[in-house]
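Design request, tokens follow.
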């Protein structure tokens, strides 16, 4: 079975173009429907036992995600926006992500697959009726849940994030392949130099006017970033194999103390899902065994593995500010773009997104998606670990609830940027911030490396 509709194409997003309430309504309907089609795909391709099973203690049963998506949509759009009575108040505690950690969710009295589908479908039908008559103001972020369609965009982003989580569950699932997709088509030949110089200076980081940006992306603020060099493309499997062949997993010099402890405790010697047979490295990808493709960006590595590789290579991980400057700053105009290529909504010519493919494209692909500095694949393919802890921006205000971002701030979580092949365009603005524990390996994460510029270089 293929993976559903193509990405949005290349039209300018009405939320950016400012074309009015009707365009916002159409945009909201479009992203909600695309998310639901993907949710249906991910939950319809397996039988009931696979829906209710927990395929890893790190992940929820797929049926929990399905009902949680519907429950959050009801909470925010039917109750908070429309002021309606709860449809199923009895299930609220079951699908509260903070009340029940993933490891214990299989033991809860969850809705059966048929009930979960029916509940989510009924919620969606009522939401589309609500949306048909919704009015959108223009007072900006925090002025109200319907301002610029914020609540509808937030719910669509939430569903797509859970769709990516469910795709991770499919990767962890045992058994034959149930998903398929065409090969990435974005190969663009020679990517140019291995690294680019990003000149030093201030740029605008974050956003204050992106209608559907979430609270941790705000507010826009000036950030001074010294000159640095950045990899033109993400680190490849081939480059990572050289790190492994040089004894990277056996040399504590390259590892942070916690990372070295992880290596020893779990006996790590390669990225997750890799194994060696004879002289060949193989990997398991959505139920298919295949040789590791050296030209692809490496994926399923923890922050500690990315950090160790960078140290071995005589480099480092970029900071979050460096990543965003490389992705957004236009040295010609001095402005910060919405995406590396401009303000145009991502399409197949720009980036590998939306589960159109089930793997990263070869490193150096998508030249039309390059930033003004010449950096490629900053959006899509793999989430990229950065050196930065997940912290609030100056002037941060939690909205519409503290548990979206604020409770995660601190040194326990590292920031990831850019989105993966499994992320939808509705969540991959160049300001979007993802975060996770540095030990995580099941996520679709890779990295690229950086180094400081020499004194006077790029000043």
């Amino acid at each position: 079975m293929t993976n559903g509709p193509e990405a949005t194409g290349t039209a300018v997003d009405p939320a950016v173009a400012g074309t009015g309430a009707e365009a916002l309504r159409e945009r909201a309907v479009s992203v909600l429907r695309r998310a639901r089609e993907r949710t249906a795909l991910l939950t319809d391709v397996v039988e009931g036992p696979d829906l209710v099973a927990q395929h890893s203690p790190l992940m929820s049963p797929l049926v929990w995600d399905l009902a949680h998506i519907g429950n959050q949509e009801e909470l925010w759009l039917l109750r908070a926006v429309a002021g309606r009575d709860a449809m199923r108040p009895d299930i609220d505690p079951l699908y509260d992500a903070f009340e029940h950690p993933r490891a214990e969710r299989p033991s809860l009295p969850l809705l059966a697959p048929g009930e979960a589908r029916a509940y989510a479908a009924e919620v969606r039908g009522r939401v589309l009726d609500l949306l048909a008559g919704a009015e959108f103001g223009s007072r900006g972020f925090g002025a109200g849940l319907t301002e610029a369609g914020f609540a509808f965009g937030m719910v669509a982003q939430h569903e797509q994030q859970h769709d990516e989580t469910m795709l991770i569950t499919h990767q962890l699932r045992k058994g034959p392949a149930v998903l398929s997709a065409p090969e990435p088509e974005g190969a663009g030949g020679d990517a140019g130099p291995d690294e680019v110089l990003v000149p030093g200076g201030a740029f605008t980081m974050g956003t204050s006017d992106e209608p559907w940006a979430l609270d941790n992306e705000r507010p826009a603020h000036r950030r001074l970033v010294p000159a640095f060099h950045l990899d033109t493309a993400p680190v490849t499997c081939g480059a990572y194999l050289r790190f492994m062949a040089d004894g990277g997993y056996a040399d504590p010099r390259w590892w942070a103390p916690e990372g070295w402890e992880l290596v020893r405790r779990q006996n790590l010697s390669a990225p997750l899902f890799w194994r060696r047979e004879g002289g060949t490295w193989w990997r398991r990808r959505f139920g298919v065994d295949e040789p590791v493709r050296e030209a692809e960006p490496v994926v399923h590595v923890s922050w500690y593995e990315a950090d160790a590789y960078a140290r071995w290579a005589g480099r480092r991980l970029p900071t979050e500010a460096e990543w965003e400057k490389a992705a957004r700053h236009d040295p010609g105009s001095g402005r910060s773009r919405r995406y590396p290529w401009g303000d145009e909504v991502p399409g197949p010519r720009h980036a590998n997104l939306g589960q159109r493919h089930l793997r990263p494209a070869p490193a150096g692909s998508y030249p039309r998606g390059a930033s003004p500095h010449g950096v490629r694949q900053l959006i899509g393919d793999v989430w990229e670990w950065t050196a930065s802890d997940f912290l609030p921006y100056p002037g941060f205000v939690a909205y519409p609830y503290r548990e979206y971002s604020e409770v995660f701030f601190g040194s326990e979580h590292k920031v990831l940027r850019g989105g993966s092949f499994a992320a939808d365009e509705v969540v991959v603005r160049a300001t979007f911030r993802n975060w996770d524990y540095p030990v995580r390996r099941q996520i679709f994460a890779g990295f690229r490396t950086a180094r400081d510029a020499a004194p006077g270089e790029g000043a």
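Comment from the thread starter after seeing the answer: thanks! The chain has two domains: 14-172, 182-459.
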